[in-house]
């Protein structure tokens, strides 16, 4: 069994590659992740910054 790791994308990046990496990890289009990130209410900016710092590069 192969272990999958969440990493920032090198190819699907707009700012940091975080949404691209989440899309690759979940096997969905990163555009959907970006749209959900914008549409869901809450502390999206803070969560994005924390995720960009914590999630390692690919």
Name the descriptors.
mainly alpha, 58 residues, globular, 0% strand
Explain this structure to me?
The chain has 58 residues and is mostly helical. 52% of the residues lie in helices and 0% in strands. The longest helix is centred in the last third of the chain and has 11 residues, at 44-54. It is globular and about 35 Å long. The two termini are 20 Å apart.
Class of secondary structure makeup: mainly alpha
Order of helices and strands: HHH
Strand share of the residues?
under 5%
Oligomer: single chain
Globular, elongated, flat, extended or rod-shaped: what is the shape? globular
Q: Main beta sheet, described? A: none
At a glance:
This protein has 58 residues and is mainly alpha-helical. Helix content is 52%, strand content 0%. It contains 3 helices and no strands.
List the helices and strands and how they pair.
Layout: H1 18-26, H2 30-39, H3 44-54
Helix pairs in contact: 1-2
